[in-house]
Specification:
This protein is of the alpha+beta class. Helix content is 49%, strand content 10%. The protein has a domain of 166 residues: Methyltransferase, Cobalt-precorrin-4 Transmethylase, Domain 2 (2-Layer Sandwich).
Length: 533
């Protein structure tokens, strides 16, 4: 699955709000509003909220309302401030329930951000999810209000609302394929469940029989869970090579296309699952083969010019999307490697250099891909800060791990609402993504300390710094980790690399309004940095 412009992941934390504001423009899944007065006597705003909530609920993944900002995602200090008490999740759900005959998730939180004029401004972030039934949500009751011009009807019985670009509108015939996406996918899943169960049982039986019996079958078009189970049964290497070759051939086709099709996405997903299984089983040779396939495809894609800052051509955007989707899976694998302490895997995934032109390149494809994804505006947002919107790619990697749990086999994942007061450490997927991000930056900075802006960019600066503290403490206190991750480097060189990464992260966190980057580091980290000076 390729995520849309906005990563809809049910989180309503301050971090998520800043991420949504960083996009800087409305999208189908993202609606900015300057204000909403949801007091009991203000029926127009309440009815408009119901309409917008239903339209978002009818999207395949749902979407977000952000209230208190203008169309560019900046605090709307010229409008009336919102009343935070009106944006309680239960109160919002109650407003909607009286007008619809099936419920859907609504989770909200209000955060204070500082406007450019120095005013502290309350902004509400509201997540609206699709209903559990997967059916569209119709209106069951008329919604009207009166003003000096007379009576106005916003909601009619039987109305279905959808998002059409950045507007909430009544359904038209062209909207029905999108409205039925979730229901169609459920039907497909049910239709293939019987055959998937049969294949799964065969895989289990052959796996239980051991290598002296029949070899476990494996195919790139298997359902993900069956495919992962087949991998855990350790298929013959020649069968695994067939899968890698099949994925390569499908992705070679994708490099010449103007869009990444379902076959290409499936090939990327299966490569990620093979990589995750290799990390889980400590098979570095298999992981190296996966990285090599991804690297070959990455390098084969038509290269946009390094001298063009804004990439608008269809082919350039297609290449940037392919690179972005490769790196989303690399980050997901790196997150797994962090959680299982496979430092060799972290190094293998991070240090894939990319030479742009002779004599100039990047020590890590993670930096190169981020630059060009931003230039092609496939990370969303634009303007002079476009290349620093990398926090979005960590959210994409997090959501990929949740939607494809076979790449996070060490965790039991639930894609559900997240508390607005969520502490760092309660979201292991995001924490480990941020930690991998910091480590690849340290690796790149140590590999080529000459120019930090070319060498690395700490995407984790968009999130609470406490998410990366555990990996900094491990790096500072475990010589064996340093030896495996950064072989041949002195503690002094490692400390310089860490300090340079943190310096840039702090400055970017200030620019983005992130949390807790100015505070003291953990004591062992401070001691390591001081001791290496």
């Amino acid at each position: 699955m390729v995520l849309g412009a906005v990563v809809v992941d049910a989180r309503v934390t301050r971090e998520k709000l800043l991420e949504l504001l960083e996009i800087g423009a409305e999208h189908e899944e993202l609606d900015y509003k300057s204000t909403l007065d949801l007091a009991s006597g203000k029926r127009r705003d309440s009815l408009e909220f119901v309409k917008d909530a239903c339209a978002l609920a009818n999207l395949p993944q749902g979407g977000y309302l952000v209230v208190g900002v203008n169309d560019e995602g900046e605090p709307a200090t010229e409008a009336d401030p919102i009343n935070s008490a009106h944006f309680d999740s239960a109160a919002l759900l109650q407003k909607v329930e009286s007008y619809v005959d099936q419920t859907f998730p609504i989770v909200s939180a209000v955060h204070t951000i500082t406007a450019q004029n120095g005013v502290d401004w309350s902004v509400a972030v509201v997540y609206v999810g699709p209903p559990a039934t997967m059916f569209p949500v119709p209106i069951k009751k008329v919604g009207e209000y009166e003003d000096e011009k007379g009576k106005h009807t916003i909601l009619r019985v039987g109305d279905l609302f959808v998002r059409d670009g950045t507007r909430s509108v009544r359904v038209a015939s062209r909207h029905w394929p999108m409205l039925l996406v979730n229901h169609t996918e459920r039907i497909k899943a049910e239709a293939r469940s019987d055959i998937d169960n049969i294949i799964d049982r065969i895989v289990q039986q052959l796996g239980n029989a051991g290598s002296s019996h029949a070899s476990v079958p494996i195919d790139i078009d298997m359902e993900n869970e069956t495919f992962a189970r087949a991998l855990m049964s350790r298929p013959e290497r020649k069968r695994l090579n067939v899968v890698l070759d099949d994925a390569r051939s499908r992705l070679v086709h994708a490099t010449g296309a103007t869009a990444l099709d379902d076959a290409g996405v499936n090939a990327l997903d299966k490569l990620a699952i093979v990589g995750a299984t290799a990390i889980r089983l400590r098979r570095p040779n298999v992981l190296r083969d996966v990285v090599q396939v991804l690297r070959d495809i990455y390098e084969l894609a038509p290269h946009p010019s390094v001298f063009v800052v804004h990439l608008t051509g269809e082919r350039d955007r297609a290449t940037a999307i392919l690179w972005r989707e490769i790196l989303v899976r690399v980050i997901a694998l790196g997150s797994l490697a962090i959680r299982v302490h496979d430092w060799g895997a972290v190094r293998s995934l991070a240090l894939v250099p990319f030479e742009e032109v002779e004599g100039f390149g990047y020590p890590s494809w993670l930096r190169h891909g981020l630059v060009f994804a931003a230039r092609a505006n496939v990370l969303e947002g634009d303007g002079e800060d476009a290349e620093s919107r990398g926090g979005l790619i960590l959210s994409r990697a997090r959501q990929f791990s949740i939607s494809t749990p076979q790449v996070a086999p060490d965790l039991k994942l639930a894609d559900g609402p997240t508390s607005e007061t969520e502490p760092a450490g309660s979201d292991l997927v995001l924490d480990s993504a941020c930690q991998f991000d910091i480590l690849w930056c340290v690796l790149a900075a140590a590999d080529d300390p000459a120019d930090e802006h070319t060498t690395f960019y700490p995407n984790a600066a968009a999130f609470d710094r406490r998410r990366i503290d555990p990996i900094l403490e491990q790096l500072s206190s475990q010589p064996a980790l340093r030896d495996e991750l950064l072989p041949g480097l002195s503690d002094e060189a490692i400390a310089v690399a860490v300090a340079n990464v943190l310096k840039l992260a702090r400055s970017e966190a200030v620019r983005m309004g992130s949390l807790d980057w100015s505070g003291p580091l953990p004591r062992r980290v401070e001691a390591f940095l001081r001791g290496a000076q």
